[in-house]
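haha ok so turns out i had the wrong file open the whole time. this is the CORRECT one, sorry everyone. sequence first:
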Amino acid sequence: MTSTPVNRQTFDEVMVPNYAPQAIVPVRGLGSHLWDQEGRDYIDLAGGIAVNLLGHCHPQLVQALKDQADTLWHLSNVYTNEPALALAQQLTQQTFAERVFFANSGAEANEAAFKLARKYAYDHVGPQKHEIIAFEQSFHGRTLFTVSVGGQPKYRQGFEPAPGGITHVPYNDIEALRAVISERTCAVVMEPILGEGGIIPATAEFTRAVRELCDQHNALLIYDEIQTGIGRTGKLFAYMDMGVTPDILTSAKGLGGGFPIGAMLTTAEIAASFGFGAHGSTFGGNPLACAVAGKVLDIVSDPALLADVGRKHALIADQLQRIGDKLGIFKQIRGAGLLIGAELIDAWHGKAGEFLAAARAQGLLILMAGPNVLRFTPSLVIPDEDISAAMAKLETAIEQVLAAQ
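then structure:
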């Protein structure tokens, strides 16, 4: 069959309209640059929404994928495979975890985590201990269960009735959590930094208190590190710099460096509740994904690379602060490592999209974290010169938006 040329208009003709893709269609990427169908060059500070951890077409990841593609693609979980076993070894050797479950996405990793928490409580206490507590403005995925645990009602609207037994309280509010947690609670799930909810870090006091309350009420602590994990904050996982260890941790996004994979990590005792047949995934742990993710971990585990994430954070945050001071546009710069949010001043709340469009016109790709916050999630190995060029483009874009008012 002969295919006809495709462009952005083709999306509206053949795709379900649940997305509103930007006007450009990227066709090639290398490092921290993307090129569209017209050959225009863009500096990429979006990174596929914190996914392209080592940039586009990193040669070692490309080689790992090619080598595995010549060897073995898929088996199903009737068998295990060497890349999956090796990746699970890497993850357990470098974290608190003793057991790993592989999935295809962050939503699937969280779905497994929430099911496991309920099953563990069911096995050890009974069906009455089933409540999951999550936080307002959190985001945990788009399956019906994960979108219900997520703390943004707009994503549940129209899909009710939602699964029950889920309670939401304000983030960083210890007393609100203390007021609702009980012996019925099987788990508390939190992001170390609210991602989609505005790049809001957990305070040290809140972090400790959540762990203490979980311990007091025999509830599991689940960390959703889908956006913060795999070096994004300057540690392999954010919990490693927080003085708290979760019982279950989920990872995805950067874990595959652009190849779809998710993982749920936990202890041997908790994992035992997922006995034979309790949960599964046809493609989870496939050799292609695990081979690429193993190479990602090899590269990101380098202490020098992780240390450099902090240095690059300072380069970007300092420039954002300078731009904000000069143009009076940012209320606060926050985040950790290369997960950075710049909140717009109140007068510009709800208008972050205008700045994204202006940046794109300047050859710069950035993100939003809600309508009030510009979000930056570049490659962990983005060159300094790309950072400098990107910040210059951003400043010009902001000046143009302000001048148009």
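The mean pLDDT is 96.
again sry for the mixup
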